[in-house]
Amino acid sequence: MTIITVKTGGIAADAVTDAKIADDVVGTEHLTANEVDTAALKADAVTGAELADNAVNSEHYTDGSIDTAHIADAQITAAKMFSGFENGITSTDQYRLTANLTNPGAADITANLERVDDSVFGRIGTGMSVSSGVYTFPSTGVYRIQMIGHFYIPSGNDGAASVDTLISPDSGSNYDILASAVAGSTAGGQLYNTHPSECFVNVTNATNFRVKFTTGSMAATVLVGSTSLNATSFSFIRLGDTY
After folding, report:
1. pLDDT digits (tens, 9 = 90+) for 198-213
2. What residues does each domain of the chain span?
3. Cα–Cα 20 to 30 A to 26, which of 56, 72, 79, 231?
4. Is-contact 133 110, C-beta < 8 A?
5. Are 187 and 193 in contact (CB under 8 A)?
6. Strand order in the sheet with 210-216
């Protein structure tokens, strides 16, 4: 058999069609660099298997294209949240007065205190610590402190009763009154009242900051306590990071 050698110059332009090329014989080495453009790619032809691991950067994402369906559960961690949110409500706690304080006068509330222990009670984190009525914070942050006082003023006792919230930034050397709950009667009759007070505290140093509660104008008056429910209570919620 005579073999006819055809030089490339003897082949007309576009003379070699797909029909003249055997299947699976053209390798990538025959492709000119950067020759394959998007028009030559079939729609959806580039699959995940064709992409190198960790090769697609965020600049290739269309703005707003990542929806919730493409975020795996539990993948948004605290570190990915904006500042001030990542360490939001990480601590809540609540204490209560367990027995009546009768005619205490003006004095710190130092005894008959317990963390709420009902079976459905819940708190977040380690919570507050208390010793002889002085509370310390588990961490820095902005805290909401609420005191709810249940007052009983007997018949015939005209006047006022109060519970103040005092904050110290220097380990108890100096205290400042930030809030006060006040009850009173001028009618001379028996009176039960529940009064709240609250304040926000920027705890910049958890080691040094203190909070305590002090009664005032409590002559012949009872601050009601209970071990089974919150009559007089003290609540602490860490709202966010310090500033």
Report:
1. 999 999 999 999 999 9
2. 92-240
3. 56
4. yes
5. no
6. 129-131, 134-136, 210-216, 159-168, 176-185
Phi-psi label, residue 44: left if phi above 0, alpha if psi -120 to 50, beta otherwise: left
Distance CA 46, CA 33 (A): 18
Take residue 91 and report the two structure tokens written for it: 């601590």
Q: Which residues contact 179 (CB under 8 A, 6 or more apart)?
A: 145, 147, 164, 165, 197, 198, 199
Residue type, 95: Y
Which residues have a Cβ under 8 Å from the Cβ of 128 and sit 6 or more positions away? 91, 93, 95, 135, 136, 137, 138, 236
Q: Which residue has the higher pLDDT, 160 or 161?
A: 161
- Looking at the chain, the number of H-run helices and the number of E-run strands are 0, 12
Q: What contacts 133, CB < 8 A, 6 or more positions away?
A: 108, 109, 110, 111, 113, 212, 213
Tokens 């509660």 belong to residue: 213
How many Å apart are CA 128 and CA 154, to the nearest integer?
Answer: 34
pTM for the model stands at: 0.68
pLDDT tens digits, residue range 17-62? 877 888 777 777 777 777 777 777 888 878 878 888 888 888 888 8
- In contact, 94 and 239? CB cutoff 8 Å: no
Output DSSP code: residue 149.
Answer: E
Q: Retrieve residue 211's tokens.
A: 């909070």
CA distance 129 to 141: 16
Rounded distance between C-alpha atoms, residue 165 and residue 33, angstroms = 76
